[in-house]
Design goal:
Distance between the termini: 45 Å
Number of strands: 0
Shape: elongated
Strand content: under 5%
Largest sheet: none
Order of helices and strands: HH
Number of helices: 2
Radius of gyration: 20 Å
Length: 63
């Protein structure tokens, strides 16, 4: 995953000699963080909460 993300997809090694290395580094890290945070929130609201609310409701009925 690391090889694909940092070397193949973002092509970090191509920016080593460019003047915009700092900008590429900053935007790469921020974009990866934002995308991963959004995926985590989607997972939480659309998968985890519905499943745990059904489990919690199921336990209340059986008690």
């Amino acid at each position: 995953m690391r090889q694909w993300l940092w070397k193949d997809f973002l092509k970090n090694t191509e920016y080593l000699t460019h003047d915009y290395l700092w900008l590429h580094c900053l935007l790469s890290v921020v974009s990866v963080y934002v995308i991963c945070t959004m995926l985590e929130l989607l997972r939480y609201y659309f998968i985890e909460r519905p499943i745990f609310s059904k489990i919690k409701g199921y336990k209340k009925v059986n008690v």
